[in-house]
Specification:
Oligomer: single chain
Strand content: 15-25%
Distance between the termini: 35 Å
Length: about 325
């Protein structure tokens, strides 16, 4: 959180900037990452589908490898808006005094949708959560937001995440191989890597986040409070396009597969196995944030010590600058 702005800029890659017409335009600097930001991918790759984008205002898109670096960039004043997990946004507020509004939501979990899960090899002797005591368990990164609900689930089964398991950082892309090679006894699977692993077979689901908590919010769109407060008209245009982008993504799956393929470089055939299907994360058609779900996650992070104090989600909610804006 204390890295200087130059270090932040050194860690990012400018992806695309929309051309500036003759008249002056205001610019929003937006951080993004992969995966699961279909509304933003539509804005990047199909800007002519949006009435004001590239005309009334423009976006400077900056790619990151995760949400934590975007917190640093926002705290340094290098970004106006970005994708955030609940945990990273909360840590930014507590550790860097980064004041933001949650303006939209990208993906979440709800009953019937995909839920992040931990798997073992089919022939593993591990059959229950209690069986992972003393075992190596994978996570995408240390301090990840998925570890809060997992810690609570382990506690329900008599285990302490810090004392009773060996946590191993594998990343999501490398998790399947870590399980199959024996680097970890239990590994975490997220889309699109879960679909790939399931197609190959040989792995068995042990537990998922939904076993502990329903309606988990994974990634949101947040904007700095000073940006929204100083430029409400510009912020409104952006939130309106995020709303529209989500509608377009869900209404035209065939085109969305192409858009996501262009951005992620993943083949359409691979994306088609899960994207916007029942085995994918849930998306609200209006990009509406689930503030109750966010509060539930903030409470879990405080209970598990991942946050040093409790936060009230109402401090991150603007009365009008929130999706859906039509």
């Amino acid at each position: 959180m204390k890295k200087v702005a130059c270090a932040v800029f050194a860690s990012v890659t400018a992806w695309a900037v929309f051309p500036v017409p003759a008249q002056a335009q205001e610019t929003i600097r937006v951080g993004w990452t992969i995966p699961a930001e279909e509304s933003k991918y539509w804005m990047m790759r199909r800007p002519t589908e949006f009435a004001d984008l590239g005309k009334t205002y423009k976006i400077e898109w900056v790619q990151f490898q995760g949400t934590a670096p975007m917190v640093q960039a926002m705290a340094a004043g290098a970004l106006d808006c970005s994708t955030q997990s609940v945990l990273s946004a909360a840590q930014g507020a507590i550790e860097a005094n980064l004041q933001t509004y949650i303006v939209a939501q990208h993906v979440s979990e709800k009953p019937g949708s995909f839920s992040v899960y931990w798997a073992v090899k089919d022939d593993s002797p591990i059959k229950t959560v209690a069986d992972i005591k003393g075992k190596s368990v994978g996570t995408n990164v240390f301090g990840s937001g998925i570890l809060g609900p997992m810690a609570m689930l382990l506690k329900r089964n008599g285990l302490d995440m810090e004392k009773d398991i060996k946590l191993v950082e594998t990343g999501f892309p490398g998790s399947e191989d870590a399980i199959r090679s024996g680097r970890v006894d239990v590994g975490v699977l997220n889309q699109p890597f879960a679909a790939r692993a399931e197609a190959k077979g040989g792995l068995r689901k042990l537990f998922s986040l939904s076993d502990q908590q329903q309606n988990i919010v994974h990634i949101m769109e947040v904007c700095r409070k000073d940006f929204v407060d100083k430029k409400p008209d510009l912020a409104k245009l952006y939130i309106r396009d995020i709303t529209s982008g989500m509608k377009k993504a869900l209404a035209n799956r065939a085109e969305t597969l192409k858009v996501v393929s262009e951005v992620t470089k993943a083949p359409v055939e691979v994306l088609d196995t899960y994207l916007l299907k029942p085995n994918d994360f849930a998306r609200d058609e209006n990009a509406r944030p689930n503030f109750e779900g966010v509060q539930a996650m903030l409470d879990i992070y405080a209970q598990t010590g991942m946050l040093s104090r409790k936060l009230d989600v109402s401090t991150m909610r603007h009365p009008t600058m929130v999706a859906p804006i039509q």
